[in-house]
Amino acid sequence: MEHPRISRDPKIMVGKPCIKGTRITVEHVLREVAGGSSIELIANEYLLDRDDVVAAIVYASDFIRHESLIAA
Questions:
Q1: Cross-referenced Pfam families, in alphabetical order (predicted)?
Q2: In angstroms, rounded to a whole number, what is the distance separating the alpha carbons of residues 17 and 23?
Q3: In angstroms, rounded to a whole number, what is the distance separating the alpha carbons of residues 33 and 66?
Q4: CATH class entry, domain 6-65
Q5: How far is it, in rounded angstroms, from Cα 23 to Cα 48?
Q6: How far from 21 is each of 2, 6, 36, 46, 65, CA to CA, in Å?
Q7: C-alpha distances in angstroms, 45 versus 40, 55, 61?
Q8: 0.70 cut: is pTM over it?
Q9: pLDDT tens figures, 48-67
Q10: Are 5 and 20 in contact (CB under 8 A)?
Q11: How many CB atoms neighbour CB 24 within 10 A?
Q12: CB within 8 A of 46, min separation 6: which ones?
């Protein structure tokens, strides 16, 4: 699946996936959500579009969906 709002560049944040045109990582967005911040609050706080925040969440979901399962 394509993620046009997410970019990975080894020169930006050591290649971590970021919201395109920013240094805001997908990881940071997920930690904000996990900490109880709403999508709207994150968007306002970091001057992002709501769709940027949603794209970060979707990217992480797609990444996890394609991970291999390891049997215990």
A1: DUF433
A2: 9
A3: 22
A4: mainly alpha
A5: 12
A6: 17, 9, 25, 12, 25
A7: 8, 16, 23
A8: yes
A9: 999 999 999 999 999 988 77
A10: yes
A11: 20
A12: 22, 24
Per the document, the length of the chain is 72
User: For the chain, what is the radius of gyration of the CA atoms?
Assistant: 13
Angle in degrees, 0-180, between the axes of helices 26-34 and 50-65, rounded to the nearest 10: 100
Domain locations in the chain as residue ranges: 6-65
Q: Return the residue matching tokens 């990975």.
A: 8
